[in-house]
Amino acid sequence: MSEQIHTNFIEHTDSGALYNKPGLDLLLVQTPLCRAVIARQGAQLLEFQATDREPLLWLSPKAQFEPGKAVRGGIPLCLPWFGINRVDPAKPKHGLVRTQTWELAAAKELAGGDVELVFTFRHNGDELFAAPFFCEFTMRLGRELRLLLRLENLAEAAVEYSWAWHTYFPVESVREIEVHGLEHAEYLDNTRELARFRQEGSLTFPGEVDRVFENAPAHQKILTRNPITTHSDNCHSVITWNPGAELAATLADVGEHCGEFVCVEHGNAFADSWQLAAGEVAEAALTIQR
Ligand SMILES: O=P(O)(O)OC[C@H]1O[C@H](O)[C@H](O)[C@@H](O)[C@@H]1O
């Protein structure tokens, strides 16, 4: 591993110091514009809050910080496959990069006071995923949050990649929110063997909801006390998820907190998966604010 990057806005810390649950190395970013916490494992943003605004991300009070286990909350990046691996369902859900250590390759302050962190991850190809690939994940942290993904297929043949930023948003009560921006779109219902339906009106969360919108619009709005808006570039899939009380009771890191968040995830999965030729690069971006 390369040497740690030192700047006046990054503190190298860990989950023991910040959450009293030792286990993972964390970066604490503090600037006049915002505060963020990022796990080196998965380059996973755990917290983001612009100064004088409400938190943008939900981190479960029951989150576990164990190396090799995904942390419940923030923005885990699911890649190189999203959800259950369709070729071999015994493989871990949501790919492999969310439980691997990423490198902080660069960190700098931009004009205007935003800071930019660049994380990289190289996969050499193994039994989990044969193709080698390289990911660059850039976070711009300011009054809003901007994420950029650059994925390079290092294989000598074409490879399919599916992925998503699996964002957990905080809400007062998931049963009282609406997600706008998916009206009339078709979705695959993951609670009904991926059967296809059409979204009538705005999306609500009366119980378990697990929907995959392909070819989805670029803007969504989460209507909660202080609305959250998302704008994506080249993210054609939106996945919406809340487990509902019954399923949440079986998730040790969610439990009774299931009403406090909604996942509105952006990426390219199912029919929108990226087919990358040998050496091909693809990019996508997501901006979130409230
Ligand atoms: O528990 P995880 O592996 O983090 O997955 C959490 C959820 O992620 C996505 O939203 C999927 O559509 C859901 O089916 C899944 O349950």
TrEMBL record:
Active-site residues, Swiss-Prot/TrEMBL: H166, E265
Keywords: Isomerase
EC number(s) on file: 5.1.3.15
Single GO MF descriptor: glucose-6-phosphate 1-epimerase activity
Chemical reaction(s) catalysed: alpha-D-glucose 6-phosphate = beta-D-glucose 6-phosphate
Top EC class for this record: isomerase
CDD domains recorded: D-hex-6-P-epi_like
One Pfam family linked to the record: Aldose_epim
Biological processes, Gene Ontology terms: carbohydrate metabolic process
Similarity comment: family membership: Belongs to the glucose-6-phosphate 1-epimerase family.
Protein name, per record: Putative glucose-6-phosphate 1-epimerase
Organism the protein comes from: Microbulbifer donghaiensis
Record lineage: Bacteria, Pseudomonadati, Pseudomonadota, Gammaproteobacteria, Cellvibrionales
